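Journal club prep, notes for RB
We'll compare a predicted complex against what the paper describes. Inputs for the flavin-adenine dinucleotide case:
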Amino acid sequence: MQFNALTPALVSAFEQIVTPAHVLTAATAEAQQYEAYGRDHTEDFHFAPDVVLRPATVEEVSAIMKLCHEHQVPVTARGAGTGLSGGALPIHNGVVLSMERFNKILKIDERNLQAIVEPGVVTEAFQNAVKEVGLFYPPDPASKGSCFLGGNLSQSSGGPKAVKYGTTRDYVLNLQVVLPTGEIIWTGANTLKNATGYNLTQLMVGSEGTLGIITKAVFRLLPYPQHNILMLVPFRQEAQAAEAVSAVFRAGIIPSGMEFMEREAIAWSSDYLKIPLTLPEDITAHLLIELDGRDLDELYKEAEQVYEVLEKYDVGEILLADTAGQKDDLWKIRRNIGNSVRYNSVYKEEDTVVPRAELPTLLKGVKEIGARYGFKSVCYGHAGDGNMHVNIIRGELTDEEWNVGLRQPISEIFQLCVKLGGTISGEHGIGLVQKPYMHIALAEANLNIMRGIKQVFDPKGILNPGKIF
Ligand SMILES: Cc1cc2nc3c(=O)[nH]c(=O)nc-3n(C[C@H](O)[C@H](O)[C@H](O)COP(=O)(O)OP(=O)(O)OC[C@H]3O[C@@H](n4cnc5c(N)ncnc54)[C@H](O)[C@@H]3O)c2cc1C
């Protein structure tokens, strides 16, 4: 795909659209501020955009897209830049379209249990706002304190609560989208049901900024579950921790969180946060299990059932969090594992996912592959969903080992996922880094359908080029 370079005339046209204050280039912006738009949370990659634009209205986005379409300039939408697959990286330079000024919650509709929001709202801020009126928006990526709803939609993000409540995909009803030509559409209706033609709303979810720019979203909400119980369960054998996951569900319980953490994952994170946690020598993994609901007595009965399941395994002393502060600390430790791994070493994060009961086989396979190829991995993740993040630690690996040598073992990990009925990304998306492995998960016929969809939306290929396939 051939793209055109940015001209001074285009830059001044952008300045007229968003005002010069919201046009950043290497020449105009403070170096550090501009530089940050070339990075996200994926490894240590950096790709410099030619220009960063910060529009605040759908009309501005539309005008920018029209110009870029006409002049064949690539455009990469950017949320908060917390992505782990390189989706927001402008690998062909061009325009980075930062959605940070789209930061308003436009309406919380308590009558219909819905909300209309802009895509630059931070996920946790939205959750807190709806909680104030007794409502619940469950999708909670561990990065919820910084990531944006638009990024969550574009990545089909999950999080701990997905196990009971589903992912971002399950809460979106309707989206306002600017197409690469600058046309503005709504993808659906603000209804719980919709059988009116193809489902463009769901097509946009997980499209990683390759089909259109999301400028508004309508979400459905739930009543807020009043109570929860949180327990941290230490295991002496990590294989047993992985086995216990599906056993809890087989006992008829659906937790609102079921997170697996290898010893190193939890240890690094508590050290990183300086939250003291006692980790006996013989403990190799933990499950963090949350139950939630509106009836506390019922929850205690469920907790007893969980204890009965756990009795069959070689577990240490279970920590039942009994204060809000203790619960917060445990979740903080879980949510910061990614940050603590990043703090310790550059890493590649593989977002493996398999049917839940296959988790022990996946974990064993990952460790065997690591031993065979000589790399260390720290594993943790949303075990209740069968979604395990395999963090391959760079450590002392050479450039050759890191950039080339790991391709084969990563392929083997993904082949194992597919063999077990899973796939290569549960929630982080394909972006740049998983692109070489798409053929492992999908047949050429599937990929051709996706390429065809891309061609219909974006015939000039200007939106987030070089991502997914
Ligand atoms: C510590 C940590 C923990 C994490 N935990 C989780 C987790 O538990 N679950 C999970 O699913 N993910 C997790 N992530 C990954 C990441 O936070 C999510 O993928 C998140 O949804 C990205 O949102 P963002 O706003 O940062 O998007 P960005 O990284 O800025 O962008 C992501 C993609 O969305 C596109 N995009 C952004 N906004 C728009 C828009 N308005 N219109 C069209 N395209 C757009 C971009 O082009 C890009 O392709 C974690 C990341 C970190 C660093």
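Talking point for the session: The chain has four domains: 8-101, 105-223, 227-333, 345-429.
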